[in-house]
Amino acid sequence: VPGKPTMMISTTSMNTALINWLPPKEMVGELLGYMLRYKCADEEKMIVIQFGKDDDHYTVTKLYKGATYIFKLSAKNRAGPGEEFEKEISTPEEPPSGFPQNLEVVGLTTSTTKVTWNPPLLAERNGKITNYTVVYRDINSQQNLTNVTKEQSITLTNLKSDTTYDIKVRAHTSKGAGPLSPSIQSRTMPMEQGRHLLLWSDSKFLW
């Protein structure tokens, strides 16, 4: 099988990477072409592209911002692809361009509300999510309250009972905050009404 080709990669600010390569120094048999495999490190599936023997460059478009990519290039002869030249690149981070997904309430008491969510879509994260800001308010108030967490859930505390709250969340990378999610509304539980206890004593009902 062929030896390793040599590959150079340069990234641009337009979410693209220009790949150039040179044929293997050691070539057994006739060079038939090249095979490029690449993927974002956060994804499972490799993208595979075949090239002819005279091709020596390719531009990869629509790269995610703030992501690491793995590129593997091999030369091919009649015996198949040879040893791969492997290279990693990282694209610059930016604030998220999308909001967290699937915001929902998963627990309620008279004074607390637990909410969970998923990160923004991978293409809209634009880097490593460092934390989330939850913005919430009593719907009868104009005052927003905020809580910050590194987790994908939070329990809001010290809420008023039997009160509807408007809740949103946004994600942050090291470069700043992304947009707020659409809001959800959740009502805390009412305080239990005072109960009369019925006691049995000396064959009489005592209140």
Describe the structure.
By secondary structure, this protein is mainly β. It folds into two domains: 6-90, Immunoglobulin-like; 104-187, Immunoglobulins (Immunoglobulin-like, Sandwich). Helix content is 2%, strand content 49%. The protein is built from one helix and 18 strands. It has one helix spanning 122-125; strands at 6-11, 17-22, 33-40, 47-52, 57-60, 68-77, 80-81, 85-90, 101-108, 113-118, 131-138, 145-149, 153-156, 164-173, 176-177, 184-187, 199-201, 204-206. It is rod-shaped. Residues 82-101 are annotated as: Disordered. This is Fibronectin type-III domain-containing protein. InterPro entries: FN3_dom, FN3_sf, Ig-like_fold, RTP_Phos/Ushers. Residues 1-95, 99-191 form the Fibronectin type-III domain. It holds the Pfam family fn3.
Question: What would a concise description of this structure say?
Answer:
Keywords: Disulfide bond. The protein is mainly β and 207 residues long.
Sequence-ordered SSE layout with sheet pairings:
Layout: E1 6-11, E2 17-22, E3 33-40, E4 47-52, E5 57-60, E6 68-77, E7 80-81, E8 85-90, E9 101-108, E10 113-118, H1 122-125, E11 131-138, E12 145-149, E13 153-156, E14 164-173, E15 176-177, E16 184-187, E17 199-201, E18 204-206
Antiparallel strand pairs: 1-2, 2-5, 3-4, 3-6, 6-7, 6-8, 9-10, 10-13, 11-12, 11-14, 14-15, 14-16, 17-18
Number of strands: 18
The CATH H-level homologous superfamily of the largest domain = Immunoglobulins
Poorly predicted regions: 193-207
Series of secondary-structure elements, N-terminal to C-terminal? EEEEEEEEEEHEEEEEEEE
Oligomer: single chain
Helix content: under 10%
- Rg, nearest Å: 29 Å
Q: Per CATH, what is the topology of the largest domain?
A: Immunoglobulin-like
CATH class of the largest domain: Mainly Beta
Quickly give the CATH architecture of the largest domain. Answer: Sandwich
Distance between the termini: 93 Å
Largest sheet descriptor: 5 strands, antiparallel
The portion of residues forming beta strands comes to over 45%
